[in-house]
Amino acid sequence: MSERHTYRVIVRGTWDGLTEAARERLLARAADHGLASMRFAEEGSLTYEAAPLKHFSMRYVVVSDAEDGPEMAGAIAEDRAETALRALGYGWAGLRSTVTDLDTMKINRKSAPRR
How many angstroms separate the CA atoms of 75 and 73, rounded? Predict the structure, then answer.
């Protein structure tokens, strides 16, 4: 059985071709999708600013085979983002992802202060 890794993926994009109804829905819910709502989740977490309503990001947790690497985790997250955005009726362009492999990430711990 192959080793599994957990990845945190941020998918960024630009709103594109939004209908007036979609724009109104986004603006009405902007307060629910601000900085305080940023979290990584398997189902994704959408964040954006209302002014200007231009860019968005979605945060995902992806667990996949380590041998597939971060590129596959990014592709999986982008596919999830496209599916979610399509289901919500939002237009987008230029999806790109940033991937962090939590299993290989180095953690720098602060040492105790010297006396």
Answer: 5
